[in-house]
Amino acid sequence: MISWLLIFGLYFICMNLWAYSAMRSDKRRALTGDWRLSEFHLWLLAFAGGWFGAKRAQRVFRHKTRKEPFRSRLNRIPRWWLVSACLVTAGVQYGVLPHRLPDLTLPSLSLPDVSLSEMDWSLSSAGPKLPRRHRKPPKFFKSAY
């Protein structure tokens, strides 16, 4: 069984690497004069879980450190995460949200309850037939359309 903690951990690692590489790419594009990534795109990556990577890239590459709206919005993201965590916790506490996450197991295949002796093993191109109780009823009337 796959753990939710493992999935969240891999998600945050991937998002941080993506945000770090996006900030690095934007800095390189700024130096070469190419088309740049939008601030909204960078901020959205940081908000979706890549804040640590974006903040690290901001310091390593000295990118967007003086641009005030971007910098203040980037610094507000952990506060939004804290508020979201409090709302989820309150929702679980007051019964609005479920107490447990569902298990990440694959659903089992549901096969009809048929024993091998009940099946028709005649030689046909369609293979063995199910007993009459598991067959679909025939269609007597065809649609006019």
Please characterize this protein's 3D structure.
The chain is an all-alpha fold. The protein has a domain at 4-93. The chain has 3 helices and no strands. The protein is elongated.
Overall geometric form: elongated
Q: Residue ranges: pLDDT <50 for 5 or more in a row?
A: none
Radius of gyration: 28 Å
How far from one another are the termini? 48 Å
**Percentage of residues in DSSP E strands:** under 5%
Supply the helix-strand structural class.
Answer: mainly alpha
The chain-level mean pLDDT equals 76
Number of E strands? 0
| Largest sheet report | none
Question: How many helical elements?
Answer: 3
Helix and strand run: HHH
Considering DSSP H and I runs of 4 or more, what fraction of the residues is helical? 40-55%
Pfam families: DUF1294
Protein name: DUF1294 domain-containing protein
Biased composition (Basic residues): 130-139
Organism: Arenibacterium halophilum
Give the structure's gist in a few sentences.
The chain is mainly alpha-helical and 145 residues long. It has helices spanning 4-32, 39-60, 68-93. The protein has a domain at 4-93.
Topology, element by element:
Blueprint: H1 4-32, H2 39-60, H3 68-93
Helix pairs in contact: 1-2, 2-3
Supply the key terms.
single chain; 145 residues; 3 helices
